[in-house]
Specification:
143 residues; mainly alpha; 3 helices; 87% helix
């Protein structure tokens, strides 16, 4: 083989080698892009997991929320009893128009209505107390 043929063969081999290296670089770049894409997906999923975990409140937050709701409901119930007590006082002190004979019938109508409502309230309160006793009796104190 002549020097010229050797040079051409060497040049051809160098070109083939360069093409092979370029092909490897292209394949490596594709793999790198795929890895970057997968890493972005993993980061996104990790962020979503963190957001979901932080969206679930801790038990003290849940307990505090329920205790606040219970306190508000009990306060509203006590205010309702205050309003009923004021209505009882109003029934006892109201100046009714008409003849005194009619006053007794009017008072009886208001009393019967108030007693019926008081019975309903007491039954509901007893039902609530029974449910608490049946379900929570072991937890009456903090100790």
């Amino acid at each position: 083989m002549s020097v010229r043929e050797l040079r051409l063969a060497l040049r051809k081999k160098d070109e083939d080698h360069a093409k092979a290296i370029e092909k490897l670089k292209t394949a490596d770049a594709g793999k790198q892009r795929l890895l970057e894409s997968k890493n972005l997906q993993i980061d996104d999923l990790q962020q979503k997991l963190i957001e979901r975990e932080s969206a679930v409140p801790s038990w003290p937050a849940v307990v505090n929320g329920i205790n606040l709701d219970v306190t508000v409901a009990a306060g509203e119930t006590l205010q309702g009893f205050d309003r009923l007590t004021r209505q009882l006082e109003r029934i006892l002190t109201v100046e009714l128009p008409g003849e005194p004979a009619d006053h007794d019938a009017a008072l009886r109508m208001m009393a019967v209505h108030l007693y019926d409502l008081a019975d309903q309230v007491m039954q509901a309160a007893q039902g609530f107390a029974d449910a608490c006793e049946a379900n929570l009796s072991g937890y009456k104190t903090l100790g």
